[in-house]
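User: Teach me something about this protein's shape.
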Amino acid sequence: MKHFFILMLLLLGCYNSFAFEYKGVYYRESDGGAIVSKPETGGTYSGEIVIPEEVVCKEYAYEPSVTYHVVGIDENAFEESYGLTKITINAPIKDLKINKCYAQEIVLPQLKSIELENAYISTLDIPSTADDVKLYGCPSLYTLVVPGTVSHLGLSNCSVLGDLVIQESKEKLYLGISDDTPVTDLTISRVVNDNNDYLSSLQNLVNLHLGDNITHLPSLDGKTKLKTVEGNGITIIERETFNGTTSLKTVSFPNLKTIRDWAFKDSGIKSIELPNTLDSIGSSAFCGAKLTNIVLPSSLKNVGENAFENCEDLTSLAIKGNTSFERNVFENCSSLSSVSLPNDLESLGEEMFCGCSSLVEISLPHDLKVIPKSAFRNCKALQRAYFNGNVEAIEDHAFEGCSNLQSLTQPTPLKSIGIHAFDDCESMAELVLPNSLEYVGGGAFCGVNLTKLTFSGSLKEWLGINFDYLIIDHDSPEDAGTGYPTDTNPITHAQKFYIGAGLVTDLEIPANVNAVNAWSFTGYRGLKTVTIPSWVKRVGEGAFLGCLLDKVTIQAENLQIDKYGFYVSGWIQEEGIHNVVISKNLKQVTGEGDVPTANAIDYDGTIEEWLNIKFNLKKEMFAIDGQGILRINGKQVNEIIIPEDMTEIHDYQFAGMALSTVYVPKSLKRIGKYAFAWCHDLERVQYSSVKTPASAKKCQSKTDARQFITIGDCAFLMNKKLTDISFAEVVDSIGNRAFYSTAWLDKQPDGMVIIGKSLYEYKGEVPASVAIPEGIICVCSEAFKGQSKLTDVTFPESLEYISDSAFEGCIGITSVEFPEKLQSIGDYAFSQTGLTQINISSNVMRIKGDGAFSKTPIKSVILEDGENELDMNWGMFGSAEIAYIGRPGFFALSGSGLKEVTLGKYVKEIPLDFVCSHYIEKFTILSSIPPVVGREGHDYFSEDTYDNCKLIVPKESLEAYKTAPIWKYFTNVEESEVSGIKNVLTSKDSKSLTYGINGCIATSNGIVIEKKSDGSVRKYVRK
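Assistant: First, the predicted structure itself:
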């Protein structure tokens, strides 16, 4: 029974939905009308078919016909109908869904929804009523136009769809295209989707056309085939939009306002017409692009840094307005050969055209006032630069490396030329500088080769120019114009120098000019004579450096000559200054040195007046090394008789002169540094007045008592013929290398070389033990330097000075006892010795520099009690573990191993730079009044020191320390009887008792005082 009911239901269903054929198309009856269906018995459609609005069904001839409205099409109605070519749908259906249709063309009615799957149509006209369109697998569809009514469009596997047009609408389109739909040409005239990546799947896109109502570009990442983009409504190109799109050739955005950073970076774009609406171009926007020409419109306000950098195909540039440029905008555009700049352009960016190696000429705008840093650097083809009247400054490196730049005319009002501005402009032959020029930077004209330099102002104005300079990294610069400060001034490289129309060969400093500015004539080989009048007070640094002068006349009274003022390097000195004429008006020459060094010095005064000239110089002399002839009132001087009553021969007084004999009077107290240095013909220095001329007798001293003489550094340096020094016995101190490389020193026997009261040096092999004789007050510089075998040295009680490096490198010396009269210890005096303990008496006033005891294994230091400050730097005792400081002065406890410190009663203040070791264990202060410490908040001690260090203070002062700044932070404070260390005598043979600094018998290691039976005491550090 059950099976019977099922069969009846099926029969009823067939009865209610029977199939029929009408004009070659099969339909099935459905509620409300007829639906196109698949042919019965496996048949198919072919050719063209038309689906009308109504169909007529008449199953039997005797039955009346029935008319149906066509209301739909079955999804599979055309399945396997391979011969079907065209379907025309006239029926007013609303929704269409067809699967597997092989018709090449489907004519659609005014429907609302279309869904075609596996439809082999080649064309499709979407009706203007359609809202939702889905095309899945339409492998023969080449073009598609989407009307503005469509709100949803889906495309998938439309494998040959190349041209897609989406028509204009105010409504938003929701678009989905799969990556198997290879659209190459896309036109969009409406807003699409809520996000910006709706084209992400279109990897084959070649041409993109955007309608007027599209104001923002979609994301174009990965569009490696994109060539053309157009969009009338686009106003902004966002950052990186076309970054790396090497296929891109042209774009058109006629209403564009903004191009952001990296928008076209490394793209293949060859041309772009920038509209007059454009306001800004971002950083690196076109960096590395393939542009061949560019016109920047007058509307453009700002161009970011590197905007067109490395556009190697760019050949021409036109700027139309007063645009602001950041740095490196056109850097390394190596093919750029044509640049047009408007007259109203007020500024260029730094490094704007740097490396544009094809640029031949540039005409600078009328309103331009500054040529910025490196603007045309390394424009190697640049030959001509035209200035149009208002440039005030050429900044650093502006034209550096423009090796073909031939000439430059600088009209007023140019004021400054920057560092290296024209460095390596080797083709520049002529240069005109205006009288408005005030400053030239270091190395500005390095490597130029001028035949003619013209200054349009006056000599006074030229002397007022500030020629800056480069840093010199050596003491003796080579010849002028080879990569040091002389390259600042173009005159260094000029064959001829004109002021106005006049060629400059003879120079006299004009009135009202009291100083010759630094580097004013440095290296100018055309200059022959220089006159320094009485009103001139100063010759600036390098002013005449490298000038091969015939004559220099000095009429000034007090003249300062700065470093390299008249310097001429040694190998061309013979070609250099031939004659220096010095007026008797001259009273003093000061400065860094480098006075004019000449073959002959003419002085129009007397020898007494010459001797009264003070040469307060740091180096150099008037005479060429050992060859300079001194003429006094026209008479050559070979013998110098220093008149009686003279007490001093000033520094450099006769340095380098061709002298044979010098007679010094008994009144003489000092021979200055370098006073007779390089006098190669000097044979004798006689301590006598036997040849005093009549003119000098009136000046003779009434007493014949001998004075002790101090000899300055290098006083007789390199006097290779000097054999006779009769004044040696009255010398009390000698400077460094005073007799270096003299015949007198060479003939001295091995052993201690003693000159008067000074031990000059030890010749030959030094024994292990040396006792310096009593009466010696000075051990000279380097006297025992490097004598590693020396282990013991005994100083006389008379010793007052130990000079620089006196015992440097004597690694065998492990201990010394300094005499009480010792006043000064020179720099590096005991550097690199084996000293482990130092005891400095209160008479020592100075320990020079910070190297006196450097690189020594010193473990303990005692500075005896005294009220006078000691001039020293504690940093030299960096390895000390125990220190007693009994005197005020400059010191900083910086030794990382310092464990025990004692401050004597005279130390009332600790300086601001006091830094104590973090490892200190014991701190003893002998003053009942807490020493003043620089300021609160300064890290004098670490927190560990405050917590763990034992602070020992005098009896009855505990409360004072507990409330005093800095000291109040110590948590472990004790009172004790303490005493200082002063006036210590030594005795080697006596019984003794040993006390600590607290006055009690010593029971522990540290600083102790040993009292001997004969009453003498000594202090030392017991370990």
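Now, about its shape. The radius of gyration is 51 Å. The mean pLDDT is 85. If you'd like, I can walk through any region in more detail.
User: That's plenty for now, thanks!
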